[in-house]
Structures
1.
Amino acid sequence: MLTAILFFLFAGATLTALVWSGTELMRSQEDPLADRLEELQSQAMVVAQRGATRRKGRGIDRILYLVSLVPGGDDWMRGSDRLLNRAGIRRPHALTTYVIITLWFFLTLTSVMIYLQRHNPPSSWLGGLVAAAILGFMLPKVVLQRLVKRYRRKLQEALPDTVDLLGIVLGTGLALDQAMMRVSEEMAYIYPELADEFATVVMQVRAGQERTVAFNQFVRRTGIEDIKSLAAMIVQSEKFGTSLSQALKVYADSLRERRRHRAEAAVAKAGIKMLFPIVLFILPVLFIVTLVPGIISVLNDLRTLRGGR
């Protein structure tokens, strides 16, 4: 009884920690410049914590230092930080929160497996414990990769209209920074993800960073080829002094064409994707609905014939 009570208390504390960590991780950003500066400071602190000979950090960030002491912990945190950036999650303690979620999930699954296999010999629950440990580390990464795909899809869907509007605003005579900020303000309610990215680039340039470096960081944050082409076009236009508004108009048309092709490809794949649900769920139910009444009628007739005899 005492073991069960302790287990449920631990499970409740774990659930509470996961909910709090998820809330902190997914909280919306309101000031792109402040968030970006805090992100740079946080990344600098994380890099300083990754070496065992460097300082240990302070407060909750000490967890990153402890994880860096584990073999392979540096590479895992570096990959997780890159995925968080590409998912649009760039709060100061996003990496620490993700590490806490992963560790709590890992400890929860291993504890549940130990509790369920407590009466079995060690040779039987060793495989289940290893599977629970692997699953505890893999599931948060799978969820994060899904968030990355969703964020990239939103950026790709927003890019044609945003680039077209940027070309129109540049045609009115505004400078590039003013035009990007104006587009960010106009697109904030329709495409908030890309609007925040544009605002971040503008704020970085206004803070003293070179435009080429700001656009390169924009490309690294998103990892999208279309944005890489857009950044290269803007940088080359500024370098050679060519007209950017007409080039953006042509590029927006090509982006719309790519979006139409992606939609057509998704429609073409829909029929194949629907084949498996039809075979697994719809056809068995259809067979039951059509055949079972006939089978029941035949069985009743046979029972009647046997009774008559």
2.
Amino acid sequence: MSFFTYKGRSASGELVRGVMEGADSSAVAAQLFTTGITPVETGETRGGREVSASEFFARLSRPPIRTVDLLLFSRQMYALLKAGVPIMRALSGLQESSANPTFREVLGSLRENLDSGRPLSVAMQRQNGVFSPFYTAMVYVGETTGQLEEIFLRMFNHLEFQEAMRNQVKSALRYPIFVIAAMAIAIIVINLFVIPEFAKVYKGFNAELPTITKMLIGFSNFTVASWPFLLAGLIAAVVVFRNYTRTRHGRFAWDKFKLRIPIAGKIVLKATLARFSRSFSLSTRSGVPVMQGLSLVAQTVDNAFIADKVESMREGVERGESVLRTAMHAGIFTPVVMQMVMVGEESGALDDMMEEVAEMYQREVEYELKTLGAQIEPILIVCLGILVLILALGVFLPIWDLGQAALKK
């Protein structure tokens, strides 16, 4: 994603300026149209507005705004608006009760913008990325249709679903990551501290060592002599990788690669498609046109490769093709999903069918996550067994040979 500066006119004719994140200028324009702003000029920039050094350090010391803050905000706004509380009073009450000082400032800024006569969706859009373009678009739809409280409830359910999917994937990957990290630490400790001590013992006997022992001692000597350079190289590789994945091309390549990782790739794909289906269902059900809905949904999937496929679907719909045909060309959905999309288009209940698709993918992800440990454990056990075998043969085989020689004497 890149940042774009824009100028536009609101529905009342007021000149609006700001910075927005998006895939390209057309996606930014689509977001602006959805929030009721007619874009006049857009241009790519390196980031948001410039900040002073004092403001930069102040931001570092402030707690970040988490998904749970947006969840609570959405749920509480729904409850307050449903009870008939005016929006300004609702925001004032939430600002006083918010436990996050950063989010408290955001709520204060929202009130100031509303006092200036701006709609809530435009006020949210001016909060430097706190509210996603999808969130602000849904709020705009709620403002124009008079169903703002219902939109807040739907956004609460939507954010809760996305957070649950992320947490499930993280919890499933925690065990294999821990085992791999433990194995890596064990290899480093053995190479730096254990094998050099054994090498001193072997050297005192002046005996011919097995080939595997020589290889272990040689690798250990290389690690001991070069560990500062290896550490610097590792840090440099991490920095280069992070900078590369922040570029548009790098993030696209990395997100595409993640979907091809054995075992984990299919889980990431299904979780991403579940988010897409739920977001598309929500936008369609809320009255957002299909083309604008696809542009907004492309920014919620959190995967540049899938987002590119969704953008290609939007382009196909702009050419007059059906959602089914564009989804078939995208090549990321299963035949069962294609059939459900076809039924949804023919019956005029595409939002309900996409909701069913999201639930189907969610069930599949939950099943895959439950069996992930059983799928990964054999691989980890085999790798651990190979590591132990190499170390046992390399370290203890010379001791065995020396013991045999001493017994013969």
